[in-house]
Design goal:
This protein is mainly alpha-helical. The chain has four helices and three strands, in the order H-H-E-H-H-E-E. The protein is globular, with a radius of gyration of 16 Å.
């Protein structure tokens, strides 16, 4: 496999997922798996879509919709691993989830 170099303006064509540095270096987050840390970056990235779609609850809190199957596809991980990563984030307090009902994705509240 041959991977080419970047030329000219090509470097500007990629989007990046930002993962807060604290997740990587602070002891409080040392128990989080790398999958959970990357997932948190993806959740943060989805926040801009929520703002555009006006996905705000009665209290003014922004939520995202990110079905587990999409997490699996985006991260190339199993459903079990996706659920485990979400659970890790919830247990440590970085997200809250609210169930919407059968067949609908949970509302995910990403904490700052």
């Amino acid at each position: 496999m041959s991977i080419d170099y970047f030329y000219g303006n090509q470097a500007e064509k990629y989007n990046f997922i930002k993962v807060p540095k604290a997740l990587m270096i602070d002891d409080i987050f040392s128990s989080l798996s790398f999958e959970a840390k990357i997932l948190y970056g993806l959740l943060l990235d989805r926040m801009s879509s929520s703002v555009r779609n006006n996905w705000v609850d009665k209290e003014g809190k922004i939520f995202i919709l990110y079905p587990v199957i999409e997490i699996c596809d985006d991260m190339n991980i199993s459903k079990k691993k996706a659920i485990k990563s979400l659970t890790e984030l919830e247990k440590i307090g970085l997200i809250d989830k609210t169930m919407q009902g059968q067949g609908l994705p949970n509302q995910i509240y990403v904490k700052n």
